[in-house]
Every structure is written in structure tokens, then in C-alpha cells.
Design a protein that fits this description.
This is TetR-like C-terminal domain-containing protein. The protein has 197 residues and is mainly α. Helix 4 runs parallel beside helix 8.
């Protein structure tokens, strides 16, 4: 394959596929060039640097993950929405481990690209929207968003690293975690302030 048809989108997708196969940390411009059948220098007409490529992978992944979550929670509310959201989040992390990592590590992303990408902004809106059924006000709502993110990211990261070696099936622990998360959201601590019981 020559340079014909090479675009920033094709380079980004090739990098994203490679990240899923070998890990984001092992994605290099040379490896992506080999995958596309071009010389390294050809890539620089479409992406400025490895950092730029990884930023583009992060934005692609954020868009994909957000679309999956939005489809999963459409028409749902409360616990049903929470479970659908969590399952979509986890399945994306399982299927696209390199892309998922790109959405979780700090990196500098071109401000123009970031402004044009709906994924990160939509992800925040979806999370806040999903939690509306729990009737939390600020600052509790933001704290709840952080709790959801920490719980889901913590679970899928430990799972990916082989951190759940206990005999208990991981699926049962996942279900229990979501039940506990739902209970925490329903009985948020600030609601009990001043409650003599």
C-alpha cells in the first residue's frame, strides 16, 4: 500500500487498533507506518508527532465509548440506567484496552481537535444525566460522578491487570459492586445530616 488515501483518520484508526493489540505505551510512529505500509515520514503529513497521534486516539476512543454508553442507557433511568451505563463502559474497556487506556491517562491534546470532538463533553453530560434520577444537588452530584468513575475505572483496571484471582466469579463481584453503587447513590451521606435515626 502506498501513500494514496492516507488521512489523519486512517492513521489514527491504525494507531488505535495497534494500541488495542500491543498496549498504548507500545504504539510508535514506526509501528503505525509499518502497519499502513508507508515510510515513517509519510505519517507526519497527517499527524504532527507521537503525542498528537495518542491524543487523536484518546478522542476517537472517547467518542466511541460515549456512543456505546448513550445507546445502552437510552430510555432507561435509575438503577437500570446505572447498570446499562456500567456494562457498556466495562465492555468497551474489555474490547478496546489500548483505546480505553488512552481515555484515562493525562496527555496534551490539540485544543482545536479537543474543541471539535464531542466525546469527552458528551461523556460528562451522559454521566450527569444518568444520575439525575438519584435527585442529587451540587456539590453531591459532582461527588457522585467522581464515585461512579472511580468505581468503574478501578474495577476494570484491576480486572485487566489480573487483580481478581480469588475463586469468587468476577461477574458476581461486578453485580454486587453495581448494587452497592446504586445503594450509595440512593442513600447519599448528605441526605442523612441532621437525621436522628
Amino acid at each position: 500500500m502506498g501513500r494514496a488515501g492516507l488521512t489523519a483518520e486512517r492513521v489514527t484508526l491504525a494507531g488505535a487498533k495497534l494500541a488495542d493489540e500491543v498496549g498504548l505505551e507500545h504504539v510508535t510512529m514506526s509501528a503505525v507506518a509499518r502497519r499502513l505500509g508507508v515510510k515513517d515520514a509519510s505519517l507526519y503529513a497527517h499527524v504532527r508527532s507521537l503525542e498528537d497521534l495518542r491524543g487523536r486516539i484518546a478522542l476517537l476512543a472517547a467518542d466511541e465509548k460515549t456512543i456505546r454508553i448513550a445507546d445502552a442507557i437510552a430510555g432507561r433511568a435509575g438503577k437500570d440506567a446505572l447498570v446499562a451505563y456500567a456494562n457498556a463502559y466495562r465492555s468497551y474497556a474489555h474490547e478496546h484496552p489500548g483505546r480505553y487506556t488512552a481515555t484515562q491517562v493525562p496527555m496534551r491534546i490539540d485544543p482545536e481537535l479537543a474543541a471539535a470532538a464531542p466525546g469527552p463533553r458528551r461523556a460528562v453530560e451522559l454521566t450527569y444525566g444518568m444520575l439525575r434520577a438519584y435527585k442529587l444537588d451540587e456539590p453531591d452530584l459532582t461527588d457522585a460522578v467522581r464515585l461512579v468513575r472511580a468505581t468503574l475505572h478501578g474495577f476494570v483496571s484491576l480486572e485487566a491487570a489480573g487483580g481478581f484471582a480469588h475463586a469468587r466469579p468476577v461477574e458476581e463481584s461486578w453485580t454486587s459492586c453495581l448494587e452497592a453503587l446504586h445503594a450509595s447513590l440512593r442513600h447519599w451521606p448528605s441526605r442523612r445530616e441532621g437525621d436522628p435515626s
